[in-house]
Amino acid sequence: MSMKKVEERNPWAWIPTLYFAEGIPYVLVMSVAVLMYKNLGLSNTDAALYTSWLYLPWLIKPIWSPIVDLLRTKRWWIVVMQFFAGAGLAGVAFTLQAPNSVQWTLAFFWLVAFSSATHDIAADGFYMLALDSYRQSLFVGIRSTFYRVATIVGQGLTLMVAGSLEAYYKDVPKAWHVTMLVVALVFLCIACYHLFILPRPKSDHATASVTGSSILKDFFRTFASFFRKEGVLVAVLFMLLYRLPEALLVKVSPLFLRDPISQGGLGLTTAQIGMATGTVGVIGLTLGGIIGGILTTQGGLKRWLWPMVWSITLPDLVYVYLSICQPENFLLVCSCLFVEQFGYGFGFTAYMLYMLYFSQGESKTAHYALCTAFMAASMMIPGLFSGWLQETVGYVQFFIIVMICCLVTVGVARLVKIDPSFGIKKKAGNE
């Protein structure tokens, strides 16, 4: 009887909240933290450097992902990591007004980042275990949608609340203390909800027959087979360098929006940045990704690669324009960010599909996990010095350098070889 109840658990009861919970910590760590530290008085160099290191758990997560399979259930990992992430966010809230607040909050953000990366592993595995193939296909759009909702809430609503509280309290640490505390409480409520609501699929169990030594051997075997694949050098270069311009922009762009006109920025408030990047920008990003996915099913990745290359590079020109003209029209700024994020969403489709393409064959799941590690490295490494580079040369010159780096994207795109049929929707009856 209990098993029947498990099987009849409505996916609508847990898939939206699960992927909402997956998106919130990532957005807070990767996007919101840099602006929080900027508002707390850190330089652009330090804010970009410190928060870029928070990518590391996503970079190295393939190393410990087998442990998630070996020990306990995916459900257990999901719930425990959500409680850890919620506790970490509470830790950020309670140390924001303490002495050495930067060091303490960074330590708690590390806990959030590690928990979030581990949660990603468990959640994606649980999704496949708890649903049959039909429902996996049926709900793939729902999980993506609620991940985007989490992005809007985390990057948009959170910043708007923090900005409003900054204006109300006239005290930046207190404003962020209240904001992060509210987010932590909401996240802990979601964890409590999942403790009771997540189904218990029969196939979700620890791999008791597998030992730690065999996991280690399998990892090194998979690692070696990845680097024996044909064209691996070109593939790694593509994964590391295709997003170089965006990797430089992602940490500096919110700092540019926040810095006053006298320092070369646009002088937006925290709330305005939340509206511009967390709502308008995310909508553009989502639409670009959806259209990119639809078009590649018609013509294939090879056909759409170059339109996507130009799409992910040329819209970066809006930052050159914004830094030179420094417009005060908020609607114009939002329009520029929409264009840039739409282009990025459309162009990023090629990157994601190429990782799937290169991962095909034996051990494709493990090989894809290694691809995601290179993806994390591609964002972390440029981010480490992006703030320093901007403070050294200024905003206008920095964004011109970003445009020059677009040539690197074009260069690595010229090197890749893709099967023309990959990504095309197959006709009924075809294998």
Kindly describe this structure.
It is built from 17 helices and no strands. The protein is mostly helical. It has two domains: 1-203, Up-down Bundle (Growth Hormone, Chain: A), CATH 1.20.1250.20; 216-424, Growth Hormone, Chain: A, CATH 1.20.1250.20. Helix 4 runs antiparallel to helix 16 (364-393), helix 5 (74-95) packs antiparallel against helix 6 (101-130) and helix 10 packs across helix 16.
Give the helix/strand layout.
Layout: H1 2-7, H2 15-39, H3 44-52, H4 56-70, H5 74-95, H6 101-130, H7 133-169, H8 172-197, H9 212-227, H10 232-241, H11 244-258, H12 270-299, H13 301-313, H14 317-325, H15 330-358, H16 364-393, H17 395-415
- Label the CATH architecture of the largest domain: Up-down Bundle
**Total domain units:** 2
Overall outline:
globular
Question: Helix amount, in percent?
Answer: over 70%
The end-to-end distance, rounded to whole angstroms, is 39 Å
CATH class of the largest domain equals Mainly Alpha
Low-pLDDT runs: 1-7
The fraction of residues in strands falls at under 5%
CATH topology of the largest domain: Growth Hormone, Chain: A
Q: Biggest sheet: strands, sense, closure? A: none
Kindly report the average pLDDT value.
Answer: 87
User: Which class of secondary structure composition applies to the elements?
Assistant: mainly alpha
